[in-house]
Design goal:
single chain, mainly alpha, 169 residues
Length: 169
């Protein structure tokens, strides 16, 4: 029964030891524990404040990122528009140059064709003149087989030639 019902001396000594331990803990242990709990609590509050601040900074950074993206999109659109205008300008200039060169080529071809036509006409005239002279020579030989007729013809030609060389009065 000793274990279930302790002696009064044991209870007194246990109470004294408990009071001493409680006093020591209250004097030295509890302030350390409470200061550590308070430090931990302060650290948690500081961490929460830092997290809120970081969250606000992230929100501001996200806002700035959106603004930068929008600005980049606007600049990209402007650059694309400018590049399209430059491309259209280059195409227009290239078409104009091609048209001018084509006009020059066509003009040169027309000049060459005209020159070749003139050459061909001169060649045809020369050939016609040669054929005419050959025909006239053959006709004259046939008609002027007599020397008297030849002499008359020569005289008449000399007279016509001398009339055409004289100055007209």
């Amino acid at each position: 029964m000793n274990l279930i019902t302790p002696d009064s001396g044991l209870v007194v000594w246990m109470t004294i030891i408990f009071a001493i331990v409680f006093f020591i803990l209250a004097k030295f242990g509890f302030p350390v524990i409470t200061s550590m709990v308070k430090k931990r609590n302060d650290k948690i509050h500081d961490s929460l404040a830092a997290a809120r601040l970081a969250e606000e900074k992230l929100a501001t950074l996200a806002q700035q990122q959106q603004e930068l993206l929008e600005k980049a999109r606007v600049e990209q659109a402007a650059l694309l528009k400018e590049a399209a205008a430059a491309r259209d300008n280059l195409i227009t200039q290239a078409k104009q140059q091609a048209k001018e060169e084509a006009d020059k080529i066509i003009q040169n071809a027309r000049l060459e064709i005209a020159a070749e036509r003139e050459d061909a006409l001169r060649d045809v005239r020369r050939q016609v003149a040669e054929i005419s002279l050959d025909v006239a020579e053959k006709v004259m030989r046939k008609t002027l087989q007599d020397t008297g007729e030849q002499a008359q013809l020569v005289d008449r030609l000399i007279e016509e030639a001398s009339r055409s060389t004289r100055p007209e009065s």
